[in-house]
Amino acid sequence: MPDILSPADFQQQTGCSARQLEQLSAYVDLLQRWQKRINLVSNATLADPWRRHILDSAQMAPLLPQGVLRVADIGSGAGFPGLVLAVLRPDIEVNSIESDGRKSSFQREAARVMGLQNILFHVKRIEAVSIPPVDVVTARALASLSELLAMAMRLLKPEGLCLFPKGQQVASELTEARKIWSMSEERIPSLSEAGATILKLSDLKPV
């Protein structure tokens, strides 16, 4: 069992600035307060929030292409990874797509507390969202890979990519998805969970 990750450990591991650490600390504090009233995340994960939520999201930031990007975080829940990516990459635009109004209200308050200007909120089901095509789609603990790709294709530019954290069943999910989708894949070992993977997928096309 790894030691609980502290904010200082997180900063050392990611190289985030003092201002970014301050923003993310405010986010964690708000999450813990709101969790008492609204089920935003699993209670068990709040014993180690910097690893289970902040680092788990932040490890996707270096995988984003450089330059001005439009990102869609689908089924964003409490804002992971979208809000964390918006903090660490202030040059990008994040579109947070979450149909649960209470969770979206939490995200808006978190964005206000952190002083974020680069995130847009869409309180709609994914299939009902209409936004210009995006460069990157992210999703965390939302659906099977086949389902995620169907959702992502509605939003993604032809040359865009997907970043999906996946657990130890990633190989079987890829096998199933390849029955429907053609793609290029890169598997990046997770920094936050042993045996887990970040899938970086591009060149998506139906078979």
Molecular structure report:
The chain is α/β, with parallel strands linked by helices. It has one domain: Rossmann fold. Helix content is 35%, strand content 24%. The longest helix is centred in the first third of the chain and has 17 residues, at 18-34. The protein is globular. The mean pLDDT is 95.
Task: Briefly characterize the structure.
The chain has 207 residues and is α/β, with parallel strands linked by helices. It has helices spanning 7-14, 18-34, 49-58, 82-88, 101-114, 145-153, 170-177, and strands spanning 70-74, 93-97, 119-122, 134-138, 156-166, 181-189, 197-206.
Keywords:
35% helix; seven-stranded mixed sheet; globular; single chain; 207 residues; alpha/beta; Rossmann fold
Structurally, the number of domains stands at 1
Q: Classify the secondary structure makeup into a structural class.
A: alpha/beta
Q: Which homologous superfamily in CATH is the superfamily?
A: Vaccinia Virus protein VP39
Radius of gyration: 16 Å
Q: What is the CATH topology descriptor?
A: Rossmann fold
- Tally of strands: 7
Name of the CATH architecture: 3-Layer(aba) Sandwich
Q: Beta fraction of the residues?
A: 15-25%
Question: What are the secondary-structure elements, in order, as H or E?
Answer: HHHEHEHEEHEHEE
End-to-end distance:
41 Å
- Strand arrangement across the biggest beta sheet: 3-2-1-4-5-7-6
Largest sheet: 7 strands, mixed
Please tally the helical runs, counting DSSP H or I stretches of 4 or more residues.
Answer: 7
**Which shape, going by the Cα principal axes?**
globular
Contiguous low-pLDDT stretches (5 residues minimum) are none
How much helical structure, as a percent, in the residues?
25-40%
Mean pLDDT reading: 95
CATH class value:
Alpha Beta
